[in-house]
Write a structure and sequence with these properties.
about 40% helix; two-stranded antiparallel ribbon; alpha/beta; binds S-adenosyl-L-homocysteine; 9 strands; about 20% strand
Length: about 260
């Protein structure tokens, strides 16, 4: 009785306790610190985003018009901008400047992204076209604010990279296409809003056509070496076009050649 008691109860009990202890040790030494470190890192990035919004966007230096739209500011605090820049630039992702994304292109300065989004004046039900996907960051911001985002990029490698980045549940209302955005996205037109993030000397007529009556377009107008003006275009319910220059900006040029 004594021996079988030891064999049937004490040994299995001891073995299970040992196993449990070992599992807990593995859990503590591998899993817990990793999750902890990731949470710490996320908390750090969130802090950087909150600081970016306050210092650069909602309470910027005096020469800048503050962006006040609370929903735009909330989207800027939410989207992890560091996932839209190159690995070597992660530490500068929340700085007050544009950054290179390869192929001679850039991800716009956070303030400009926020300002353009505010000027665009979107509603939750809107269908928006973006021309110039680049990193996908502007599209990610818009995805939090509108029903559907269609974005077109002319540089194949950038379009494909952005499409991969945006393959997350929170961005499922974003569709990326590699094409010349001069022609807009005819199958999905008309659009409530159109945002162009490369500078054109002339507003592409197909984009004006694909803007619905009552719609708005935000587009930098100007040449590569001349002053560019961030311009708000409005189409009245009757189809009349008006243009208003908002502020001088500096964007990469709108091109017409697929790469
Ligand atoms: N919105 C981007 C910034 C992009 S920079 C972001 O959030 O990161 C401008 C982009 O416009 C570049 O990637 C450039 O390749 C693209 N572009 C230039 N001309 C274009 C055209 N005709 N059609 C589509 N994209 C164009």
């Amino acid at each position: 009785m004594g021996q079988s008691y030891v064999r049937k109860i004490i040994i299995p009990l001891f073995a299970s306790a040992l196993m449990f202890g070992m599992l807990m040790m593995i859990h503590r030494s591998i899993l817990v610190p990793k999750a902890h470190a990731e949470n710490q890192e996320e908390a750090g990035f969130l802090l950087l985003r909150k600081r970016m919004v306050k210092d650069q966007i909602s309470h910027p230096p005096g020469y800048r018009e503050p962006v006040q739209d609370e929903e735009v500011l909330a989207a800027m605090r939410t989207v992890p901008r560091h996932l839209f820049v190159r690995k070597q630039d992660i530490s500068r992702a929340y700085g007050d400047y544009p950054l290179p994304i390869g192929y001679g292109q850039t991800i716009s300065q956070p303030y400009i992204v926020a300002l353009m989004t505010e000027i665009l004046d979107v509603s939750p039900d809107d269908k928006v076209l973006e021309v110039g996907t680049g990193s996908g960051y502007q599209a990610a911001i818009l995805s939090h604010l509108v029903r559907q985002v269609y974005t077109v990029e002319i540089v194949r490698a950038l379009g494909e990279q952005a499409e991969k980045r945006l393959r997350r549940p929170e961005y499922r209302n974003v569709q990326v296409k590699v094409a010349d955005g001069y022609y807009g996205w005819k199958e999905q037109a008309p659009f409530d809003r159109i945002i162009v993030t490369a500078a054109t000397t002339l507003v592409p007529p197909p984009l004006l056509k694909q803007l619905r009556p009552g719609g708005k377009m935000c587009i930098p107008v100007g040449g590569q070496y001349t002053v560019q003006s961030l311009t708000l275009i409005e189409k009245s319910e009757k189809g009349k076009i008006t243009m208003r220059k908002m502020l001088p900006v500096r964007f990469v040029p709108f091109t017409r050649s697929m790469r």
